[in-house]
Predict the 3D structure of the following.
Amino acid sequence: MNCLKIDPNLLTKKINPNRRDYNYNCLDHIKYYKIPVKIYYDFLLSIEGFKLKNIWNQIIINWNRMKYELRENKDFIQSDYSDNKYHQIHININDEEFNDLLKDFIKGNNLKCLFICNIVQNNITPK
């Protein structure tokens, strides 16, 4: 799990009880790598609903920053990652909308899944 900043199993103590009930599935395909995605889902369900938009915006800000920093890298320019365009959201969203946004962002890509996991980890244990 060296692709994640923090071992997800260490995060469980920092997560509050769930506020809502929803079955997230956007990260499920990285379960194959024995990454405990339930921890991320529990965190998303433990925060106030309006913060989902904030996490989405953090994902997009960081993704666009990465794209900007790699804009002259030939390998990146030739990759599928350079073509994707995502935008911030300025209205509140619910769990289902957030899950759909994440699935659309990920589109089965493990790297994007791990990118999201790291952003969520930053929200669980801010610097």
User: Anything to note?
Assistant: Helices lie at 38-46, 51-69, 74-78, 95-106, 110-124. The longest helix spans residues 51-69.
